[in-house]
Structures are given as C-alpha cells and as structure tokens.
Amino acid sequence: MMPSYIDGTKKARPHPFLAPPSVPLIYDLRYPPTSLHFPSSSPFAGYGYELLRVPLTLERPRQIRLISPDFPWEFDIGPSVGEEVVTCLDVLSTLHVELQRPLTGMEWGTAGDDKRASLIRARDRRLWMQLALHRSSNSAARTRPTVNFERPVQREPLILRVDWLGSNVAFMGLVKNETFARRFVPRGGECPETWVVKFQKS
Length: 202
Fold this sequence. Notes:
It is a single chain. The protein is of the alpha+beta class and 202 residues long. The chain has a 4-stranded mixed β-sheet.
C-alpha cells in the first residue's frame, strides 16, 4: 500500500517518501538513486528506487526549484523523459546529477579557508570510500598493480559540489520555508514552486 499525502492540514507537503521528519528511505547523495534502500523496519523493505516514480505532491507540479542553506545553488527540476509531472525520483536524480558536477574556480574562490579545508576532507573521504567499495566488490583489485592508495593525493582529483555538504550527505527530506526562499527571488520576480532540501550526517 502506497503512503498517503493527506495529513488533515492545508500546508504544502511533499509525498511521504520525501517528507521529514520521518523520511522512510536511506539515501547518500554521493551515489546514484539506484543505491537507495528502505530500512528493514519499513513496510517497503526489499523495494528500491522504482517506488519513487510517483508525483512529488498532490498538485502534480511540472516544475519545481530546490534550494538549501547547506549549499549555494538552486536547481530547477522538470519531469523526466516519459513523465508528465515532477516525481520523487526526479528530485533525487537531479540532486545527485547536480551535486556530482565539479566545483568551479569561482565557487572555490568564494569559500573561506575553513570551507576549503572541509571540501578537501570531504573529497578525500569520498575517494577512500569509492576505493574501498571497488576493492570489496572486485577481488582482482587486491593484486592489480594499478590500484594505489596514494593516487588520490598525487592526482589531486576534482572536488565535486557534493563535497560542499561535508559529512551531511544523507537526504533528510523537503520542507517549505518561504522566508528563506524569498532570498532567491529577484524583487518583483517570480519563481517555480520552491522546496528546501534538508540533509543529515551519513
């Protein structure tokens, strides 16, 4: 049985799959949405990302905007191919794709010393996790000479937008915050329906 949107109030709410404080899924933004899962205590345990192909809200929006106090960007989202409205899966897919983009020189330049140190730590942590997953899933990597733990440092891999989040890379849901959203609207301008993304430590 799919969860219901209806909560007895007129306040805008996303689908329960993406509604805090009890988001029923576990998803780390460093990985594609295909990696998300539901905890064993969930009635959806054993199911995967396919369940998220449902409209984000009862209003069935055709375009939304995502913002967050945890990152400096805004992401506009429309329906994916084959869909008529924005779905819960569209939200997570777009977030993942946008956060996998390399940090630009200008974005790096706006970061203070503490933020830059945090970005580098997050980048290194992400790379070590990727290498560990690769080694655990491919036993041949244990003897392959090209696998070298020093390579991430020597090659100075790109810092990605997701590293801006530090360790707060677990998706926690979408909320409405009109006061915060108004900061992203030019005076007299209009913008799509806007949702604020919340994260927590992974």
